[in-house]
């Protein structure tokens, strides 16, 4: 692990920790926790969900210039009761009937999600969140409480159903991100792992709590591992309990993933949702001003930067620094830019060898955030003041 920042000459440079928001359990129309009645836990709200509950997420995302990841549950979006064909996915099994959740809000909300793709990413959480074996609810949809995966053909059928539900609403393609429901998961068993199946569906980003997962082999690095092209990162404990409605943010939050549940960000009166998200936006934006932290604008940026944060080494080299990426795996999921922050008394132009600066943004307090895209296959980067100029 790198020191938080490296001082050199008259500047300070950091590979900042990404901070990124993942909101779980989005997608229910009923809020009610049904767990006492063989139904899913849902969000625990005593009202129905509505378009305003999505609008507020887009509003928070816009304020932070972030494409928030929504880990979605989709059974209550079923227009045709197609889930009768997947009886383990719902509490009604072969008698599944979603009539009560069909109404104008479906198309209205689907249209909103289609128009706000740049701020709201649809991620996979589950079809019904739990698993119904002969009609009896068990936790959770893809793994049991001991971290044993459901049979592979059942997992595939559930994932196919998730994709079909998205298609019913023009919300494809299939997601690239997954959050295991109820943190029941496993990794480290390669070809027999859920990662193998997820990879077939195009999923490449996953976050969960590693200590709650069955580990057939330990993670490759603390808080970070990869398998079958899927990069798993430690999401840490949720910032607040899952069922706390309209939650006030804690004093402190940590990256890479700020894990929240939908009802944390909602008000019992949907017209007052904005009041709930305002302090969360304040907290995240304040944290992003620090040299050692930045707001990742999307899932790919968060995952890529976290891998650099954990695995890359920064050391003084000539007038600048060398960023050694030798320990990073070559995975499509990590092919985007990395981010460095520089604090300097007098701003000057910077250059990269082995890649190029694709964006830079002044952040106040003498700090600039640079996005650096490495050249293909390039493991060593040099980042320093432009040659031929000296600091003034
Ligand atoms: Zn959940």
How do the strands and helices of this protein lay out in sequence?
Blueprint: E1 6-8, E2 11-14, E3 17-26, H1 51-64, E4 68-73, H2 104-115, E5 120-126, E6 131-133, E7 136-138, H3 152-168, E8 177-178, E9 186-187, H4 194-200, E10 205-208, E11 214-215, E12 224-227, E13 230-234, E14 257-261, H5 273-288, E15 293-295, H6 299-311, E16 313-317, E17 320-324, E18 338-344, E19 350-353, E20 355-364, E21 367-374, E22 380-385
Parallel strand pairs: 3-4, 3-14, 3-15, 4-5, 8-10, 9-11, 10-13
Antiparallel strand pairs: 1-2, 2-18, 6-7, 12-13, 16-17, 17-22, 18-21, 19-22, 20-21
Helix pairs in contact: 1-5
Bound molecules: zinc ion.
Question: What is the average per-residue confidence, as pLDDT, rounded to a whole number?
Answer: 95
Rg measurement, Å: 22 Å
What about the largest sheet? 5 strands, antiparallel
**Shape summary:** globular
Report the top-level CATH class of the largest domain.
Alpha Beta
User: Helix coverage percent of residues?
Assistant: 10-25%
Strand order of the largest sheet: 1-2-18-21-20
Which ligands, by name, code or SMILES, are bound?
A: zinc ion
Question: What is the CATH T-level topology of the largest domain?
Answer: TIM Barrel
Total number of strands: 22
The secondary-structure element order is: EEEHEHEEEHEEHEEEEEHEHEEEEEEE
Structural class: alpha/beta
CATH architecture of the largest domain: Alpha-Beta Barrel
Uncertain regions spanning at least 5 consecutive residues: none
